[in-house]
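Good morning N.,

You mentioned wanting to compare the apo and holo forms, so I went ahead and generated the holo version with D-xylonic acid. This is what I fed in:
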Amino acid sequence: MKKRNVLRKMMAGCMAMGLLFLTACSSGTTQGSGTDKGIQQRVIKAGIGLNEDHPEGQGLLKFKEIVEQKSGGKLKVQTYFSATLGDDLKMTEALQAGTQEITIPSTSPLVGIMKEFGIFDFPFLFNTSEEADAILDGPIGQKLLEKLPEYGLIGLGYWENGFRHVTNSKRAIETADDFKGLKLRTMQNEVHIDAFKELGANPTPMPFSEVFTALESHTIDGQENPLATIKSNKFYEVQKHLSLTKHVYTPFVFLVSKKFWDTLSSEEQKILQEAAIEAGKYQRQLSREEDQKALDELKKTGVKINEISDQERQKMAEIIQPVVETYAKKFGDDLVNELYNELDKIRQ
Ligand code: TK8
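and this is what came out, ligand included:
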């Protein structure tokens, strides 16, 4: 709605300025400087860290299908799965440099680029995927997307990584005490690192593609990720316990290189924007179905699965609270208060 208003104002401005400035005013989005050159033949490299069979991989294939169909085959999306182009951070940097066009990373490792993304890393922030959708698609999520061009990135929306659970080779996590001394891989994200430290674990940040080998060689005891990933990356083969901690929700953010975006026509930008949203709806749906299916399938593997009571989860949240408060100040009290106010509204 807001975007359209801005566009309408821009158009009115253009008309007032007359024909001379018309080309400079032809942008179809507030985020880019789309030209009016129609659709050209282009190859778009899109890489992700997860496998093709993961909901993220399936979402990317859906995105490819939509883009190729809407552009009459002129825009070709070349897909790269399983971190073949590098991990989340490396691919995001390639977007900034203009050597890769698209990636869909977890927001968590991007805090080094844009610290505000860290608000989504507060443990136990969301209770359901629908709450996450409302925040991400609402004013807060959009505000963060609008800041991305400052960092050479264009954000076209959020997809779902999901609720994370802990696996490890030592013991079932039933109480907060069970974290003590566990060497846990975390994402490269200070909120996660400090939260696990607070629980007494020994957090070891590393890129995702190194996790399986580190678990297998017992360099680390455990890791945490959504069920779809634990299944797709076969972590159950090298882990004894899966504890359903549901300790944090991770969004994916759909990113395009700003260097690339600025070379696109408004028509091309529109195709990518619409495809990212449409494929994102499909991906979120799939992610939710897969969360349940993956649990059923993991039950059939050798991994021992345990639930955690709400009371214990509450205790963990209380232990972690000082970390949340520290980071709320770093990310900006106004932003964090707005987040909690929005959440209150959603929950009413
Ligand atoms: C995949 C990552 C990943 C994330 C992580 O590129 O690093 O643990 O959950 O699955 O985005």
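Residues 49-50, 88, 105-106, 161, 187, 208, 225, 229, 250 surround D-xylonic acid (CB under 6 Å).

Happy to go through it together on a call whenever suits you.

Best,
F.
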